[in-house]
Amino acid sequence: MERSAREQAEEKVGNMATEMEELSQSLFEEANAMVRTEREKCARLEARLQIMESREEDKRKRLTELEKAIGRITRVRNLLENKNASNISSMG
Predict the structure, then answer these.
(1) What is the predicted pLDDT for the residue at 88?
(2) Which of 3, 29, 33, 52 is the most exposed place for a label (fewest CB within 10 A)?
(3) pTM for the full model?
(4) Could you tell me where the DSSP H helices lie in the chain?
(5) Which tens digits make up the pLDDT trace of 14-44?
(6) How far apart are CA 27 and CA 35, in angstroms?
(7) How far apart are CA 64 and CA 90, in angstroms?
């Protein structure tokens, strides 16, 4: 009887150890899947950030070019206004 109880106890311990190992393995697999998912999300976010930064740089360049063009247009307009003003004053 003592031997049978001992065998049963050893079997229970063995079963518990197997179950614990399976649970640990399952936990690590789940943790690895979570880490992989987060890394993928991070990579997608980094890619989107890079695209947005590139677009922002393009917009800055276009804005600079537009500001330069406005400056040129303003200078030409001023020259034309001054020329017209001097033509009018020389006529009158």
Answers:
(1) 75
(2) 3
(3) 0.59
(4) 2-91
(5) 999 999 999 999 999 999 999 999 999 999 9
(6) 12
(7) 39
